[in-house]
Amino acid sequence: MNIILIGGPGSGKSTYAEFITKEFGIDHIYPGELLRKEKEKGGEIAKRLKNLSRGEFAPNDIVLKLVKDAVAKAKNGFVFDGFPRYMQQVRDLEKEKIKIDRVVYLNVSEEEVIKRLTARGRADDTPEIIKNRTKLYKKETGPVVDYYRSKSGFIQVKAEGDTPEKIAQNIIDKIKMKPKSLKEFKEFISEGVYDPGIFKAFFLAGGPGSGKTFVTQSAFAGTGLKVVNSDNAFERGLKQANLSLQMPPEEEYFRDIIRRKAKMTAATALDTYVQGRLGLVIDATGRDYNLVNRQQSMLKAIGYDCYMVFVNTSLDVALERNKTRSRSIPDYIVKTSWEGVQQNIGGFQKIFKPQNMLIIDNNRSEKELVSNVLNQAARFIRSNMRTSPNNLIAKSWIARELEAKKIIW
């Protein structure tokens, strides 16, 4: 196991490096210690190091040679403590084909760094000097963290707020976890504060046979928005229970149990996505006005910009399309659902506002649907996704998250 441990003064690199080396039986490679031993030995390298000005970094070729020698001796692997420090050293590692399995970034707030370093009582550990040092270190090493952040095997740990033993155990547990594949990792880093649809929620409404599912799969394709829809879980549940997709009246009792479970599954998914303020597509019929109103109010209260795409059809078209669906429902249910959805159009316009609601006429052929309806929906979706969140609550949340993700050493 080959590990890079990144963190500046006050982050606890050496402390956690010792925990890691003990756990995995690997070598602790600390360039500062290697340079100190080289000075003590004497020789050409020692002479070059002796001539350095106070505060001047050791030449990169010397550091690289000492690191390479140490890696060659590390038969079971190693943990780099404070190396690489800048991008040239990253390139040197790759040129030398030194394999890295994990990169652990110790994230510590500036307040905590100042608290730790001023407690040492050194004359040069004043808050102002410490701030200048962290600023310089971020400038030099920030690109290194950003580079590894985009690769599989990157681990970020909050290295404060708990005992060193518990923090170390958290680091070790994360190191032992199987890293995500490159595809999974790219999906992972796009989420949270970096999610392209952050603080955007699109409600989709329309009765049976309106074409909502087709719009969801097509117009929202490639947006990265998280779809919340209980229909898939409901259909899976019907099949697992050997119930008919034709929805016969005699199976209504058992069908309702499965529907409630499916809705709970969708609600759990929604809660998970909202925790990271991810972009959403909430796909429902729109028949339950109170539910939509509650969800929209909740999302707005935490900073979301909310929109609605209403897919509209005539009752005759809805009844005709229902006959060709794999999960068809009795005509009277189609009619009841269609009437309920139609009654809510005015209410939806009031809570979403006309500029945030798109009503699509989907009474025509499949070909026209593709060329007109989808283009209309896609333009509406993408134009609203491109705008930055304008809610003060959202802006404050994003600012806090970005502050937490800053490279603090």
Protein model, in words:
- The chain is built from 18 helices and ten strands.
- It has helices spanning 13-24, 31-41, 44-50, 60-73, 87-95, 110-118, 127-149, 164-176, 182-189, 212-219, 231-240, 252-275, 289-301, 315-322, 331-343, 345-352, 366-386, 392-404, and strands at residues 2-6, 27-29, 78-81, 102-107, 154-158, 200-205, 226-228, 280-283, 305-312, 357-361.
- The strands form two sheets. It has a five-stranded parallel β-sheet, sandwiched between helices. The protein has a five-stranded parallel β-sheet with strand order 7-8-6-9-10, with helices on both faces.
- The relative contact order is 0.12.
Write the layout of secondary structure elements.
Blueprint: E1 2-6, H1 13-24, E2 27-29, H2 31-41, H3 44-50, H4 60-73, E3 78-81, H5 87-95, E4 102-107, H6 110-118, H7 127-149, E5 154-158, H8 164-176, H9 182-189, E6 200-205, H10 212-219, E7 226-228, H11 231-240, H12 252-275, E8 280-283, H13 289-301, E9 305-312, H14 315-322, H15 331-343, H16 345-352, E10 357-361, H17 366-386, H18 392-404
Parallel strand pairs: 1-3, 1-4, 2-3, 4-5, 6-8, 6-9, 7-8, 9-10
Helix pairs in contact: 1-8, 2-3, 6-7, 11-12, 14-15
